[in-house]
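Entry type: protein chain
Record version: 2
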Amino acid sequence: MIIDSHMHLINSKCFDKATYDRLGQTIPNDTDIDQLVKWMKEAGIQNCVCMAQDMHKVWNSEFGECAVEDAFKKYPEFFVPFCSVEPIDSAGRFSQKNYDYVEDKLTNCGYRGVLFTPPYGQFHANDPQMYPFYELADSQGAVVQYHHSAAGGPTVLAHTKYVQMKDLNDVTFNFPDMKMVVEHIGYPFSEYLFTLMVNDKNLYTDLAMLYKRPFWLTWNLVLAKEMGIIDRVMFASDFVAANNDLFSENPTEDLLEWIDFVKFGMNKICANSGWPLFTEKEIQGILHDNAARLYDLK
């Protein structure tokens, strides 16, 4: 069985059309939650860590906290819910309202973590105003997840200067016991991220959106293996919807293709390149065991 460690749910009504029109961006369509679960289960996925994405500070939008709430209520055994907030408001001040929201979700509603997206909100992960959120997550044993990677397409206000790994180094230094996940293996700063992971056993990462770069991805996982942190790398999809971004009209087929690449494709590249092969245990760790350990999933 497979665990998807990072997947976004949306409600299109939570996006600001005027902002998206001005930026030349398209608001994605809603995905029926029953259809989504069907796609995933057909691909062998047993659990999905789901979240929205707060982007009020610059984009006046969020993916849909209500979508996460509805999905978790309907499929509590399938979804592992995260909340998502921006800790700093549009005036650059600590957001007490968002802090209170996160506290409620983590302590009263069964949520397992919180997502922050520094480049979209144009703030730094080591901003002191974020530290109360870290203290809260740390005290609850919750996971702090980051989109802390460069944008794969046009930057559109998601500035790379807000995803420098030195910012996260301050966070790991000050919160050595806090559970953290950096999405997309910190693209393109993966080697720096792996160095942080060597120094912090509570820091994990995922492979979302990288399967179309098979050689780059495989080489970086060879480095992760050599650096001894391959047991904290996890399979992930991102936003699953038919005919959206990397997905075809049948997302189950895409998910199966990516899973097959992890199972067999990476080792084909390694064999042809003279690189070390991944063991069955390491592959099973990426697809299931590492996320199961982080989230205590049976």
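Comment: The chain is about 45% helix and 15% strand.
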